């Protein structure tokens, strides 16, 4: 019969409820909620569980596949976020923040660019420096 899943949930409903309360991330809560709904028979099919939490059936099936392969740990494991590396490394940003706290500071964004190049050996575009200092570090003091 279509829509019937073959999944044996190892944890009891009470254990799942406790895990759900202890979860700090929204994604973890959603994934545990699916197991809880299926374990307590509030949802009879994966489709019904997916509709109850507002997710696509295929998404929920992917979560359950993770659970089948590695249990709760695999279900709750978050993927490392990938993306473009930062133009200015964290250590350089911290050094710049310290330098901005000093009373003499900088007279312009271009002076910051020059300081980064001469002191730290980093060639950072003006636009990047402006955005970082103005939006993230609070601008000039």
UniProtKB/TrEMBL annotation:
It comes from the Bacteria. This is Helix-turn-helix domain-containing protein. It comes from Leptolyngbya boryana CZ1.
């Amino acid at each position: 019969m279509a829509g019937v899943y073959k999944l044996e949930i190892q944890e009891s409903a009470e254990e799942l409820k406790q895990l759900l309360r202890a979860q700090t991330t929204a994604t973890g809560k959603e994934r545990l909620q699916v197991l809880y709904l299926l374990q307590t028979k509030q949802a009879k099919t994966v489709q019904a569980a997916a509709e109850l939490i507002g997710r696509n059936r295929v998404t929920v099936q992917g979560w359950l596949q993770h659970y089948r392969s590695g249990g709760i740990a695999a279900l709750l494991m978050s993927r490392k976020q990938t993306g473009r590396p930062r133009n200015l490394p964290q250590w350089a940003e911290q050094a710049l923040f310290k330098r901005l706290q000093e009373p003499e500071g900088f007279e312009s964004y271009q002076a910051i660019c020059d300081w980064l190049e001469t002191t730290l050996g980093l060639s950072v575009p003006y636009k990047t420096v402006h955005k970082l200092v103005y939006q993230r570090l609070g601008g000039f003091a």
